[in-house]
């Protein structure tokens, strides 16, 4: 069954390589979607297909220098618009 989620990750998640580590993790799990920084210091993630459960679990720790304080997420139906995973700027 295909799944999708939108997540907002807060804490020390910018300036620590979070987006590119997320990109690599998502690609290793065959997840499609995107990751981006927000102007208030958080990171947002749209993920669908592949092993989205494993990516969501990874968001709670992130890369080694990150300090995740919270992950707010909601499940959605996949949009089917993405053929891979990208970093949005």
Task: Give a short overview.
The protein is an alpha+beta fold and 89 residues long. It has helices at residues 18-28, 52-59, and strands at 4-12, 32-37, 43-48, 67-76, 85-88. The protein has two helices and five strands, in the order βαββαββ.
CATH architecture, by name, is 2-Layer Sandwich
For the CA atoms, what is the radius of gyration?
A: 12 Å
Q: How many domains in all? A: 1
What's the overall average pLDDT, rounded? 96
Give the termini separation: 30 Å
Write the SSE topology:
Layout: E1 4-12, H1 18-28, E2 32-37, E3 43-48, H2 52-59, E4 67-76, E5 85-88
Parallel strand pairs: 2-5
Antiparallel strand pairs: 1-3, 1-4, 2-3
Commentary on this structure:
With 89 residues, the chain is α+β, with helices and mostly antiparallel strands. The chain has one domain (4-70): Alpha-Beta Plaits. It is 21% helix and 39% strand. It is built from 2 helices and 5 strands, in the order βαββαββ. The longest helix is centred in the first third of the chain and has 11 residues, at 18-28. The mean pLDDT is 96.
Features:
Alpha-Beta Plaits; alpha+beta; five-stranded mixed sheet; 2 helices; single chain; 5 strands; 21% helix
